[in-house]
Amino acid sequence: MRIGAWAAAVLAGAFLVFGPSLVAQQVADPGFQSVGRGAPLLVDINEGAGDGGGRGGRGGGRGNQGTPPGVTPEGIEALPVDLFTTTDFYKDRALWSDQRYFRCNTSTAIENIWGMGRGSNRLGDDPPRTAAWGPCDQDYPREAIVSPYPFQTAQEHYEALLEETRGRGGPTEHTYATVPNDWTGRYFSSGQHWYNMGRVQVPTVLSVLTEEYQTRMVQEAYHQGVTNKPQWQSQYCWPEGFMRRWHAAAVRDHQILVTPELVQISAGVADNFMTNIHIGREFEMDGVVPRLGADVPRWYGETIGFWDNDVLITWTSNIQGWKVHAATEHSNKMQTVEIYTPYRDDNGVLQGLQQEAIFYDPEAFVEPVRIVRNYAKRSGLAEGDPLVFIECLQTIYEIDGTATPISPGQVIDYKVRDMMGRPWAQIWEEYWEHGMERPEEEDVFSFD
Amino acid sequence: MNRHTHVTGLLGVALVATIVLAVPVKAHHSFAMYDMGATRVFTGVVDRVDPAVNHLGIFFAVMNEARDGVLRNEKGEPVIWTVEMGGSAQMARQGVSVNTFPRGTVFSVALHPLRNGEPAGSREGPMFKCPDRNSRPALGKHCDSVEGHVAIGSGTLPTPTK
Predict the structure, then answer these.
(1) Which residues, in sequence order, are bridge partners of residue A253?
(2) Distances (CA, A) of A261 to A172, A179, A311, A374
(3) CA-to-CA distance for B8 and B5, rounded, in angstroms?
(4) From residue A166, how far is each of A179, A307, A338, A339 by CA, in Å?
(5) What is the mean pLDDT of chain A?
(6) Would you say residue A67 has pLDDT above 80?
(7) Among A52, A88, A200, A292, which lies 20 to 30 A Cα-Cα from A315?
(8) How many CB atoms lie within 10 A of CB A382?
(9) Residues 6+ apart with CB under 8 A from A39
(10) Chain B residues touching chain A at CB-CB below 8 Å
(11) Are A199 and A59 in contact (CB under 8 A)?
């Protein structure tokens, strides 16, 4: 089902005028009242000002600079203690829901506060105490983040869409002659959505997280904005993780290959992302989570899907829990339902794909959330730069809790981390949280 | 046995041996680091199953002889060993995965230890999972002695060489 011609024109026009980094967010109208796709997006991330104190730029990423360091915004009363003055952020949980605790900085702005270029000093002369404020009147509404659909699980959602499609005579069983071959090609996808974390206030994001995952997000905000000990996954050549598929810095160029049995989406900047959508297959349902292969969580999950004419509907499960820096962590329970809808110009030429993704993770999210974004088609495979397969060779190592570039020949002490146990947090907790009262972990090595 | 049958038999043995012994050749690394002539048997508590390493690894805290606690170092920290086994998918099909061996699981395993004395080894023979944390083996025993245990692989726990 195609997006409306008007919307296609808007999207195509925006692409031509602004380039691929700014295409209006638009949920594809399926042309009928669907049980689980096409619900309008309440707010286009491109509307309004920029980003809550991050770097300059457009909509989903950057923009408003907030106030200078040391200056509290007019009409705002600072909290007696906040992220930049606390001695133990764990004790401040009651303040986390107040955007003043983060000085109205988005998590992207907090992440950038120590790493800004010259002339962009947002730390002041006594950091972190003098860290600058972001714009307190800017946010992205929670209502535009949470899923507009009634489903509590990806299985319910996927099966409802499948049943709906069956009621309409589907799913479409494509052959090589009928599969939408013009999908095959190169695409660009920007971070024009809330999960890029450039416009949404931290408390708004925290409001969709469970208590444990709230703690994890604030922990990272503290170590990015206060101790200046960022632990990004790709700095150590660690895996990017599933949710980085939706983060602008991790994926820009995409390659899509379409066959009747398999649709493959590949991307990657610092590491490789590959989504293999197995058309018409069904998950094994006898494990902890649905899966296609062995009972092994996969970094990018396993995906099944079906066609409703030229709309592709997918379900991804069996995902390895991990994190996105400056965003959220997710668990092994994460599952998604994704709908890919083509948008075309008046001549029927494919302009791109609109992706509506709904995320189900009962360990991380208090309710499902949605991300809407566009893949703007740049070319077929016969032109453009080829997909790059990335091999990451580590040059930055953790030295006494600090990420440090190491030159050949240097000798270092190196502590091997438990990679399945939030290695980034192990570093922070060992070196940079002395005296803090963390929630106690279960002691599995003692017996009563 | 005529000569033809004898040669065929030898070829058959060689083929089977090739298939069986080829596993390390197909592996992600040499197993020469392990002392294949030595066997140690442990009952331990799972700290972590890591499916993302060369071969699936279980990091575990070694239980004491009384089976009422774990061995600890001078800092009071659990003494952690690693047992390496087959690839993650292969092991999952045998019932060893992140989901079937969650943190805190009590299990018994034999392993060929590292030659250099570091606390790691390559799995040898079957493993046995205790039914739950409250159903632990008696003094000096292993999970294969506990009613309701789950066996991973066939046979019995190898006899330790030391």
Answers:
(1) A188
(2) 12, 10, 15, 24
(3) 5
(4) 18, 11, 18, 16
(5) 90
(6) yes
(7) A200
(8) 7
(9) A27, A148, A149
(10) 45-52, 59, 61, 68-70, 78, 88-90, 92-93, 97-100, 103-104, 133, 136
(11) yes
Please give the structure tokens belonging to residue B3: 């000569």
The SS3 of residue B145 is helix
Is the separation of the CB atoms in A132 and A123 below 8 Å? yes
Element (H, E) at A17: helix A5-18
Beta-carbon contacts of A103 under 8 Å, excluding residues fewer than 6 positions away, are A53, A78, A82, A83, A84, A131, A132, A133, A134
CA distance A16 to A98: 40
pLDDT at B85: 95
The alpha-carbon radius of gyration of chain B (Å, integer) is: 18
What is the spatial distance between Cα A314 and Cα A304, in angstroms, rounded to a whole number? Answer: 6
Structure ipTM: 0.84
pLDDT in tens, B107-140: 999 999 999 999 999 999 999 999 999 999 999 9
Which residue from A173, A155, A154 is spatially nearest to A308, judged by alpha carbons? A173
pLDDT bracket for residue A131 (50, 70, 90): very high
CA distance A36 to A300: 23
Count CA atoms within 13 Å of residue A312 on its CB side.
Answer: 30
What's the CA gap between A4 and A402, in Å, rounded? 51
Residue reference for tokens 């001549």:
A347
pLDDT given for residue A116 in this prediction: 64
How far, in Å, CA of A56 to CA of A124, rounded? 18
Contact state of A444 with B50 under an 8 Å Cβ cutoff: no
Here the tokens at position A8 are: 């296609």
Rounded-to-integer distance, Cα B3 and Cα B16, Å: 20
One-letter amino acid for residue A1 of the chain: M
Query: Does the pLDDT at position A248 exceed 90?
Result: no
CB-CB under 8 Å, A288 with B99: yes
Which pLDDT score, from 0 to 100, does residue A70 have? 86
Of B52, B61, B89, the CB nearest to A445: B61
Amino acid A23: pLDDT = 59
Alpha-carbon gap, residue A273 to A295, rounded angstroms: 20
